[in-house]
Design brief:
Elements (H helix, E strand, L loop, with lengths): L1 E5 L3 H12 L3 E5 L3 H8 L10 H10 L3 E4 L2 H7 L2 E4 L14 H13 L4 E5 L7 H16 L5 E5 L9 H6 L4 E4 L3 H15 L5 E4 L1 H32 L3 H9 L20 H14 L5 H25 L7 E5 L14 H11 L3 E5 L4 H7 L6 E3 L12 E4 L11 H7 L4 E4 L6 H6 L3 E3 L5 H7 L4 E4 L4 H10 L2 E4 L1 H6 L6 E4 L4 E4 L2 E4 L5 H8 L3 H11 L1
Parallel strand pairs: 1-2, 1-4, 2-3, 4-5, 5-6, 7-8, 9-10, 9-12, 10-11, 12-13, 13-14, 15-16
Antiparallel strand pairs: 17-18, 18-19
Helix pairs in contact: 1-3, 4-5, 5-6, 9-11, 9-12, 11-12, 12-13, 17-18
Length: 534
């Protein structure tokens, strides 16, 4: 089948390459001549795993073409995909000017029956606008050609987009006529022949499905980030909580990893657009508004942790950022948390040393000639003399770094883990201060010189963390009732005695092994000493 894809950005290029790979003759059209020239030279305007090879193979085999000639591409095609950008307008709603401009071109050059496919993420009702736009142009031409407008939203994840297209969970198609449905089934039959995953529905339902899917995933991310913050307040381990809820098959593990907020070209834009759609139709979007608010706050949580450690004034401080893209396996920095964090740190006087496997070129474009940012060719060079490492993007190469090598490069052994990649206990054993959504307050308490804590009770996670740090914990509701702020409290763990002024409260003495753990500075040091003795 002859297919034209208008728009050679992320969605258009991946779609065109994948469609050509199963035998369709595909022409990708773009009005950006520089981009088309790049593609014809075999250069990719975006980074996506496997895309360059896929494009090269299909160009070589004569199934994939790139052009700026919208007229010929429209005339030759049976099916025309519209895959142009729908950037947010000033009020957050989707800007349809590029979609409707393509619709006008289609109406101007079509020469027979066509199926026009909205592949771009568009508000509910856009297909009607596309249809009326094409009809108006045909009327001006005094031409009478049949055509159908179809909604076929994309569900591609950057970094694994080719796999997503080739092995889709589902193919959603909003179509009205049997003729359009038949052609669309032919377009996708090669991708779904083992399991028919094509779902036909009404056009407006298909348009809504895309927004609803992205909004649901964004909601899961913001929900987990809010739970992560709450875990810090109540002294719970968010990783334990994540495992506990993710093992429920009704919830699952996908998109419940706490971090520093979502970014990219889809979630921020689509959540905002869906909120505007709701307001436009006099409906509420309270959950989505909260999702958006939590996400913006989450991007600043890391900055707050850094300020809490180093102080409000960061003049003279040097921070290393590992990762700049909004997620691994892409160079996309649109709405990336790294942009917010870099801006906030520089505003407070800090300087940045940055490394990302793929997004360096994009970062240099965004922060053009910024004297406060230095870029490095490898992750370790970027660490030299830094006051702290900030992990932004969970690239695979950052998961198991050479900590000994890092020790010789970092000025201070401080890591702010924005993706919960490193085990806090391991970091403490290696001598690092590790600020993540799993950090335990026992580290800070010990740093303040506190040696013992008396309370009515302790949570399991705090008890474990405090023991690892060598803090003495005593559960005694009676003692707590006896003292007030400013009172002197004496503790004798060997005798099991707490003295508050003239009052004496007894508790079960600590076992000798537990006393050794506390006196030697914690469980890890105690184990090390035991191993040395043996």
């Amino acid at each position: 089948m002859k297919i034209t894809v208008v728009g050679s950005g992320y969605v258009g290029l991946v779609s065109g390459a994948c469609l050509s790979d199963v035998g369709h003759i595909v022409t990708c059209v773009d009005n950006n001549k520089n981009k088309i020239d790049m593609l014809n030279r075999g250069e990719m305007p975006i980074f996506e795993k496997g895309l360059k090879e896929l494009v090269e193979n299909n160009v070589e085999d004569g199934r994939l073409f790139f052009t700026t000639d919208i007229k010929k591409a429209t005339e030759d095609a049976q099916v025309i995909f519209i895959a142009v950008g729908t950037p947010p307008d000033e009020d957050g709603s989707a800007d349809l000017q590029y979609v409707l401009a393509v619709a006008k071109d289609i109406g101007k050059y079509m020469n027979g029956y066509k199926v026009v496919v909205d592949k771009s993420t568009v508000p509910v009702g856009t297909a009607d606008h596309v249809k009326s736009t094409i009809s108006e142009v045909l009327k001006e031409r005094k031409a009478n050609y049949d055509f159908d407008v179809v909604s076929n939203p994309e569900f591609l994840k950057e970094g694994v987009a080719i796999d997503d297209f080739m092995k889709p969970d589902r193919v959603v198609i909003g179509a009205e006529s049997d003729r359009a449905k038949k052609l669309m089934h032919e377009v996708y039959s090669a991708f779904t022949f083992q399991h028919d995953r094509i779902i036909f529905m009404g056009i407006r339902s298909a348009e809504m499905t895309k927004y609803a899917a992205n909004a649901m995933l964004a909601t899961k991310i913001s929900f987990m980030n809010e739970i992560s913050r709450l875990c810090e307040e109540v002294d719970a381990d968010v990783e334990d909580v994540r495992t506990g809820i993710g093992s429920d098959h009704r919830i699952g593990y996908s998109f419940i990893y706490p971090g520093i907020g979502y970014g990219g070209s889809c979630f921020p834009k689509d959540v905002k657009a869906l909120i505007k759609i709701a307001h436009k139709h006099n409906s509420t979007a309270k959950i989505l508004e909260s999702v958006e608010e939590v996400n913006e706050e989450q991007k600043l949580v890391m900055v707050t942790k850094i300020k809490n450690h180093f102080g409000e004034d960061l003049n003279g401080k040097l921070f290393t950022l590992w990762g700049l893209s909004f997620k691994p396996m892409t160079d996309d920095m649109r709405e990336a948390p790294s942009q917010v964090i870099i801006h906030e740190l520089i505003q407070r006087g800090a300087k940045i040393q940055a490394y990302d496997p793929e997004a360096m070129k994009e970062a240099k474009r965004i922060f053009v000639d910024n004297p406060n940012i230095t870029y490095f060719d490898d992750q370790y060079s970027a660490l030299k003399d830094a006051n702290a490492l900030i992990l932004i993007t969970e690239w695979r190469q950052f998961r198991m770094p050479d900590f000994e090598k890092m020790n010789s490069l970092l000025k201070e052994k401080v890591i702010f883990d924005g993706r919960n990649q490193y085990e806090p206990d391991q970091m403490k054993e290696l001598g690092y201060i590790c600020g993540s959504s799993r950090e335990q307050p026992s580290v800070g308490l010990k740093a303040l010189g506190i040696k013992a804590i008396v309370a009515k009770s302790f949570s399991r996670i705090f008890y474990r963390s405090a023991t690892n740090q060598g803090l003495l914990l005593i559960e005694s509701p009676e003692a707590v009732e006896c003292y007030s702020n400013g009172d002197k409290v004496e503790v004798d763990e060997k005798k099991g005695l707490i003295k508050v002024g003239d009052k004496e409260i007894f508790f079960p003495p600590l076992p000798e092994q537990m006393q050794d753990i506390i006196n030697e500075g914690g469980l890890l040091l105690h184990i090390k000493n035991k191993l040395v003795d043996e």
